[in-house]
Amino acid sequence: MELKPDEIKQVETITEETSDVNISSRVVLYNDDWHTFEEVINQLIIAVKCSFERARDFAFEVHVKGKAIVFSGSLSQCLQVSSILEEISLHTQILT
Predict the structure, then answer these.
(1) CB 77 within 8 Å of CB 56
(2) pTM (2 decimals)?
(3) Domains of the chain with bracketed CATH
């Protein structure tokens, strides 16, 4: 069966672009040879708002493994945490 031109329905496709800052993301902190454990721990406490013990565990993991995921949350939260860590020139990366 063939459709006549007046029987063909048009389909409209709508695509929506969003820039969602609530995407689940992670902050990775990398090891370096310039910062002391004390500097890293203190900055982690400020950035991640964690206890001294938790920050020490993160710092030790970074030292041993070369990197560690130190925060998970929305992209906007990760950008804020990364920014605070980078205030003292720590090397970070945000994974989405």
Answers:
(1) no
(2) 0.77
(3) 22-95 (3.30.1390.10)
Which single residue is written with the structure tokens 């925060």? 71
Beta strands (DSSP E) in the chain are 24-30, 67-74, 92-95
**Closest CA relative to residue 73, chosen from 81, 63, 65, 83:** 81
What does the pLDDT look like over 39-53, one tens digit per residue?
A: 999 999 999 999 999
Q: Is 70 in contact with 58 (CB distance < 8 Å)? A: yes
pLDDT surpassing 80 at residue 23: no
Q: Specify the pLDDT at position 13.
A: 47
The two tokens of residue 20 are: 């969602």
* Tokens 């990775």 belong to residue: 28
Which amino acid would we find at residue 10? Q
Separation between Cα atoms, residue 25 and residue 2, nearest integer Å? 52
